Amino acid sequence: LTSLLPVVAFLIIPMGTVLLLNARSSPATSSIPVVSDLGGRFTGTGKTESANIRLTVWALGRHLAEERPVLGWGLGQDFNVFQSNGSEDPFTGGDFHDIVIDLAVTTGLVGLGLFAVSVAASLWSSFGTWRNARSDAIAAIALAAGILLVQLLVKGAFESVFQKFRLALIL
């Protein structure tokens, strides 16, 4: 029974999400707190503006990485991105909300390659230890470390993890 628990969880969670999204489109369910508020979480004005700024920052990052592809611009640089909403105030910062673009801009292909090698070695070591551990506790810790690294990489695809010093220490 416990071996079926992950399978059941992988089936029930997506089906529940689909049911909530379908229920939201029905006028009869618009008064249900969770369902009526769910649409604003994904399609609100703030989310759209945030997505547009992120796309602009990514485009600038790719452009900057192409200008200095080998060694990048160096650490600690600030870049200005003017918003598409007509505001004269630039979005200023040194992060591009994407770990690959961040590394490509600041350290170039050299740094990006070294980072990829270190991540691959860490994952290889983590999952190798998990598979060959003599103790269940060591196997669990090794697997948790590998999953944590993957989670941080996925988070780094949409947010800057290097600007958050507590997360950057883990990487």
Low-confidence stretches: none
**Separation of the first and last Cα atoms:** 36 Å
Q: Could you say which structural class the secondary elements and strand pairing correspond to?
A: mainly alpha
> Secondary-structure element order, as H and E?
HHHEEHHHH
Supply the number of helical segments.
Answer: 7
- What is the 3D form? flat
Main sheet properties:
2 strands, antiparallel
DSSP strand tally: 2
Quote the average pLDDT: 75
Q: Which percent bin holds the helix content?
A: 55-70%
Strand order of the largest sheet: 1-2
Portion in beta strands: under 5%
Tell me the radius of gyration: 21 Å
How would you describe this structure to a colleague?
The chain has seven helices and two strands. With 171 residues, it is mostly helical. Strands 1-2 form a two-stranded antiparallel ribbon. α1 (5-24) packs across α2 (33-43), α2 runs parallel beside α3 (45-67) and α4 crosses α5 (108-132). β1 and β2 form a beta hairpin.
Topology (elements, then pairings):
Elements lengths: L4 H20 L8 H11 L1 H23 L11 E4 L7 E4 L5 H8 L1 H25 L3 H21 L8 H6 L1
Helix pairs in contact: 1-2, 2-3, 3-4, 4-5, 5-6
Question: What is this structure, in a nutshell?
Answer:
With 171 residues, the protein is mostly helical.
